[in-house]
Known about the structure:
A: mainly alpha; 2 domains; two-stranded antiparallel sheet; 7 helices; B: mainly alpha; globular
Amino acid sequence: MDAKHIRDNTVRHVATAAKYTVVSVVSFGIIYPLLMTLIAQTIFPRQASGSIVYESGNPVGSAIVGQLWTKPQYFHGRPSAAGKGYDPTSTGGTNLGPTSKKLIDATRAAIAQLKKDNPDASGPIPMDLVTSSASGIDPDISPQAADYQASRIAKARNIPVAQVLALIAGHEHGRAFGVLGEPRVNVLELNLALDGKP
Amino acid sequence: MTIVGWLQTAVFLGIVLLLTKPLGAYMAKVFEGERTLLSPVLAPIERATYRVCGIHPGKEMSAVAYLLATLAFSLVGFGYLFVLLQTQKWLPLNPQHFDNFSADNAFNIAASFMANTNWQFYSGENSMSYLSQMAGLAWHNFVSAGAGIAIAIAVIRGVARSGFATLGNFWVDITRAVLYVLLPICVVGGLFLCWQGVPQNFHPYQNVVSLEGFAQTITGGPMASQEVIKELGTNGGGFVNANSASPNENPTPFSNLFELVLIFLIGAGLTYTYGRYVKDQRQGWALFAAMAILFVAGFSVAYAAEAAGNPLVHHLGVAGPNMEGKECRFGVPASALFATVTTDTSCGAVNAMHDSFLPLGGLVPLADMQLGEIAFGGVGTGLYGMILFVVLTVFIAGLMVGRTPEYLGKKIERREVQLAMLGALVLPVLALIPVALSVLVPAGTATLSNGGPHGFSELLYGFSSTTENNGSAFAGLGGNLYFNILMGCVMILGRFTFLIPAMLLAGSLAAKVRVPATAGTFTTHSPIFIGLLLGTIIIVGALTFFPADALGPIVEHLLMLQGKVF
């Protein structure tokens, strides 16, 4: 093609592109998400609205979003780099690399804090309790991390350790279909159960 | 490493393998305009689109005209998003009242989404209105993926046709790609993700008070409809900053498997479509095999590194795999798998923070991108990237035996080899020169969040990712004016300096007349060919990038073993 031909062609293509942009934005950018919302809100209303958990009518969290826990009578989650901790409007990890001095210092501090919070704990320190999650709002901890906190919770609530351990075992989520992901417990679900709320 | 960890990957690859043939055959039908099961619903929409836009579906385009149409559409789409991002404050569906983006940030984002990269110098949950997300970003996810598929189909036609001057009609191919391939999977897949827990609403963010009395803001938005095309279109731009690591985007191990399958699905299916077009399925399966081998090799290294854990952390008295920057529901195996899959393709979604991977664990996604993202690859881009390597491979094989190289009956001559080499060379140039520049200027190192070799890795990863239109990051690298502009330009150049030689190559091949195979013809579906193809890919990639990688992850690994911190 010569230069004039290419120029004419280009003008024509840009005109088509502009019309195509309008048509596709309306269909894929607007109608598609609106229809999907309509269907999703009809058949999965709880999930579509954020899996909010209510307690006596008040929203106390989302089943899929982790929260900050500090009191001894509740299970605690993982260190979080989301905002000031577990802020869903500022998600993310520490992004510290494996040879980062900051990472090593933070991990050392987390280990010290964990040992201080759980003086009666036995067994190895669970890795997930001293490392920050990727999202900063990880709702889960490993079953080992829950077990590690059992004696502290039992003491704070004045109940037998065995009762706490049984509760953990009862709320463990295994691997999906036996192969996908890792076994875990949801911290909010466990803490609601501790308070005797289903 | 555990058996269950490997089993999960086997299940994943098995599902991809099972879906390759039906999807590939379906795509071949769609792009040849045959009737499919969905035609009664979609054909009227397709015809209406042509009518409104003044497209003549019967009119085929030459390689140059096809390219011009692609470029024109990219240009308009870029301009549209650039304006949308700078006006979102005054537009509807912005319940959190987010402000407009600055011009340089809007430039970077518009370039990023137009180029199917989805590099993100912004955090969606605290800056992007619902309208910008769905009508700006998710729309780009559809059409940039559709354009990628269209181009792959045009390149396939180039290889398959004999004595043709045209490669198809861009507008028809992109329309069929978004309407018949992407949309149906997105409707079903989006609802599946919502069932697993991904929100789909237009609520303002909801305030809750926890059992301990802490206030928390739960984010919302039309996430499921965007999440599904983000993976299927190998776009990768998260609705929220934490991307598929966020439980909002990827709530369960089941949703995680589903997202992984979506990422590989079209790239794998296109290998079968390719076999259909060239009327020899063995050719398609040979490419599939080469891709699968690259994938498994990458996963093994990443999984082994992450499962072994960080020795510097082990010294503190805690044992176990590397869980920094990973989610409990996925653990190490599913995180290493996701990192490999997302960079074998041009997706770039993440379910764990690559910046916190161990040096060799992070080397895998880095090297995957540097090899050209051809292990199933970005939708479309993976296949035409692989075909460029195929041309180089048959050329090298031809040199070895002293015969004029040919591929599927087409003589590979000077022009084809030049175009393939151009495609193989522009990418390293685009990736490495900006890295060298960035370590020399203050603005280039001002926003690193790690010191020592890991800081260099952040830069190397960033420019490898933007050049290859991946979009994943060693996310410690922060945005500033310098990176907004430079990376924006790199993403645009990365998309088109690769696409243009691929299309011209296709045009050149289509024009050639097929010569019949003889006893001396080099077969291109044998294990020997697959081995040679892999060798070519690795030699080209390794020769180009090894020196730079040695300064980043490799030296960091050695220093880590000596107990050094930065």
